[in-house]
Amino acid sequence: MSIHINANIGDIASTVLMPGDPLRAQFIADHYLTDVRKVSHTRNILFFTGTYNQTRITIGASGMGCPSIGIYSYELYTEFNVNSIIRIGTCGSYTTELRFYDLINVKAAASESTFAKNAWGYEEELQECQGTVFEAINKVATAFNTPLRIGNIHSTDVFYSKQPGTPPLAIKHNCSAVEMESFALFANARFLNKNAACLLTVTDIIPTHERLSATEREQALRPMMQLALETACIL
């Protein structure tokens, strides 16, 4: 029995979109889903299930960091028969070649985190997306003429650091951007033989210290939300 998600069996769809922020989950539910209802609110980590283009979808928050998404994704996969999770989040670019609003379909996540090793015995510092969702996202992006970048990203355990510049791990694995969750999601899906993907919107340019405002972010994330929702319809 799940101790972090208080939904009933059957309340959660087979495909879940996971922003980090509970209020972003509510925003998506309010603006894109019909026949929607809140199905979990434990610790104010909100989950909503509704319909988008005749497809039943759940939107649920992951919280921040590998430990948090590690808990929620594991319980979704094992307790609620979820087959596919698409993380939809923001990221900071390590390079000025990426610009605000760019969308990244993550191929693999590199991390200094010990999550994969301690949980499942995976020694690799790079965890790949799992299953068919990555290619489904590419297919939908092409159909809707949505510009999409593909590449590796850095899933860091550290938001603030005394070390400036791009970390050596990110350089080693050619990571163009940084976030905090995908590594654990991919590791869980790998162990459980489930589908996992990650879509990110660039909201910070680290070398120039530029970042979008809260208001700008709300509009910036809509293309990512729509791409993820449309992808969920073909899974």
Rg, Å, rounded: 16 Å
Order of helices and strands: EHEEEHEEHEHEHEHEEHH
Summed up, the domain count is 1
Low-confidence parts: none
Summarize this structure briefly.
The chain has 235 residues and is of the alpha/beta class.
Give the helices and strands, then pairings.
Blueprint (H helix, E strand, L loop, with lengths): L14 E4 L3 H11 L1 E7 L6 E6 L2 E6 L5 H14 L4 E10 L9 E8 L4 H6 L5 E3 L4 H11 L5 E7 L12 H5 L2 E5 L2 H11 L2 E11 L4 E2 L2 H7 L1 H11 L3
Parallel strand pairs: 1-4, 1-5, 5-10, 6-8, 8-9
Antiparallel strand pairs: 2-3, 3-4, 5-9, 6-7, 6-10, 10-11
Helix pairs in contact: 2-6, 4-8
Report on the structure:
The chain has 235 residues and is α/β, with parallel strands linked by helices. The protein has one domain (15-232): 3-Layer(aba) Sandwich (Rossmann fold). 32% of the residues lie in helices and 29% in strands. It is built from 8 helices and 11 strands. The protein has helices spanning 22-32, 66-79, 115-120, 133-143, 168-172, 182-192, 214-220, 222-232, and strands at residues 15-18, 34-40, 47-52, 55-60, 84-93, 103-110, 126-128, 149-155, 175-179, 195-205, 210-211. It has a 5-stranded mixed barrel, surrounded by 4 helices. Strand 2 (34-40) and strand 3 (47-52) form a beta hairpin. Helix 2 (66-79) runs parallel beside helix 6 and helix 4 (133-143) packs across helix 8 (222-232).
